Amino acid sequence: MLRKVIILIGFMGAGKSTVAQWLGKNLGWPVVSTDRMIEERANSSIKDIFVKNGEAVFRGLEKAAVEELKDKLEIVIDCGGGVVLDQKNVEVLRTLGCVVYLSTRPDTVLERVRHYSHRPLLNVPDTLKTIQDMLSTREIFYKQAAHKEILTDGKTAEKIGQEILKWYDEYQ
Ligand code: S3P
Question: Measured in angstroms, how far is the CA atom of residue 119 from the centroid of ligand 1?
Answer without folding.
Answer: 6
